[in-house]
Specification:
By secondary structure, this protein is mostly beta strands. It has a single domain (22-163), classed as Sandwich (lipopolysaccharide transport protein A fold). Helices cover 0% and strands 58% of the residues. The chain contains no helices and 11 strands. A 6-stranded antiparallel beta barrel has the order 2-3-6-7-5-4. A hairpin with a 5-residue loop joins strand 4 and strand 5 (78-84). The chain is globular.
């Protein structure tokens, strides 16, 4: 209902690119294959925008208050984790673009590797994550840094494209091994 003193009330148009059509707080989503959990996503805030840009219907989801993704392997163990300050998912003309930004940390718990960068993109069709930004990659074997990174979407096979000043190369110690601290269930039983 509108009440006005003049004959023609002011018409205001809504800018749908900046006005969310949906806001969700405390969101958690899970993906299953058959009965097995394969992926879990968490965020404190998601806003959805629907608009037309250059006559193309576009949907944009903005995760502004933290973004976390957990990837599980076939055995149900936590394999990889992505944590970022925010993310954005844009769908237009059958394109599905994902971007995580702000202190992006990608951890592969099984291999003990960590990738730190500012922005990372996910190509869903190619099943890879990538960035052209500055990257630091650490593992039990050492530390690498450079610009640009390509990896499979599980962060199992990561490559820095233009490395520089890499350091921390560790000589392999045959008595030392890496323990997956996230999925570790306790000490190995004593063999009698």
């Amino acid at each position: 209902m509108a009440i006005s003193c003049s004959k023609d009330p002011e018409k205001k148009t809504i800018d749908w690119e900046t006005t969310p059509v949906q806001s969700v707080r405390g969101m958690q989503a899970r993906q299953y294959q058959k009965a097995d959990l394969t992926m879990e996503m968490r965020t404190r805030a998601m806003d959805t925008y629907k608009f037309e840009k250059d006559s193309v219907p576009t949907t944009k989801e903005v995760y502004s208050e933290g973004f976390e993704v957990y990837i599980y392997n076939e055995d149900g163990l936590l394999e990889s984790q992505l944590v970022a300050e925010g993310a954005q998912h844009t769908t237009a003309r059958r394109k599905d673009d994902w971007m995580a930004f702000g202190n992006v940390n990608i951890l592969n718990h099984v291999k003990g590797e960590r990738i730190i960068t500012d922005t990372v993109y996910w190509d869903k069709q190619a099943e890879q994550i990538y960035t052209d930004n500055y990257v630091i990659m650490t593992s039990p074997k050492g530390k690498l840094q450079g610009y640009g990174m390509r990896s499979d979407q599980r962060a199992n096979r990561s490559t820095i494209l233009r490395p520089f000043d890499s350091y921390g190369r560790v000589v392999e110690d045959s008595t030392k091994f890496y323990i997956d601290t996230v999925n570790f269930v306790g000490p190995l039983p004593r063999i009698k």
